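For the sake of transparency, this paper describes our internal protein records without simplification. The tokens are whole numbers drawn from a learned vocabulary of local backbone shapes. One such record is reproduced below, unchanged from the form in which we store it.

. . .
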Amino acid sequence: MRHWAVRIAGTLLLALLGSVLGLVGGLEYNALGTPPASARTRGADALWLGHAWVDGRKGPQDVTALAAQLRGTGVRDLFVHTGPLNHDGTLDPSLYPRAGWLVTALHRALPGVRVLSWLGDVVGSAEGPGMDLATADLTGAARQVLDLGFDGVHLDLEPVHSGDGNFLDQLGQLRRVTSERHRLLSVAVPQTDPLPGLHGIAGLLTNYPKWWSAEYLAQVAHRVDQVAVMAYDTAMPTPSLFAGYEQQQTRLALGAVPRGVDLLIGLPAYHTDSPTHRASAETVAAAIRGVRLADDGRPAFGVALYVDYTATGADWSAYRRDWVR
């Protein structure tokens, strides 16, 4: 019996290794070619902004500088960190004393730009406390930020496992609130399975949902106005592999998200190294190359830079040169 178990385990490992090697070769192939000239900004891009914009650390001169930086780009949406949420879904007003002022100032300095409240929390699990998606009520927090003048809610709850029905219910409840105010509901989402069923394998091994199935991404997308794919922290070791991975992720997202829903692909404008992020490989330039190679020309499509306080001049130059030009 043990002999057969070893043979079966060896067969499974060889099959997994073959799949991984095939994936690597496929990513290198994905990065080849010349992006179409039409694969450029449609004026539907976004930027994540840190909490300093609402807690008093940023002032009028910072708004003026930001407006100057964004003029002539394709940035239409600003996701301003207003949370974090409490685990029961409520939001402490003391966290954002300058939010109302900021929304007014940004609307004045950047006419046409939409300012969304970025709200998030850690979802609880067996490994630690957090939000219980079955019982939390986020609707009050959504009404709070919409009362401040925000153009919508950008929701970032992590980790959410592929197929989680409670998360779908939460989106449905929030959508009713934002729709009755004629505002937007945006959601940050994980990456999509690069191999069929990979989210299930990864969930068993790590209990962390690095990927969602394309089917679940489609279910989420049907409940919101905008989807932003967190297409970074990929553990890719070289720019070409990262570009190929971004091409694949963009293609998968384009296939799952309905054309009537805004789709954003996140760009890694941060430079810390970790087991899942090699800054020399995950560059804005490599990400944009992958995005452009997969671009299908739909109007409601763009990129989103993460995040304002780590983005360098080189990041902005790559964005302008490769996507805005």
Remarks:
- Residues 39-324 form a domain with the TIM Barrel fold (CATH 3.20.20.80).
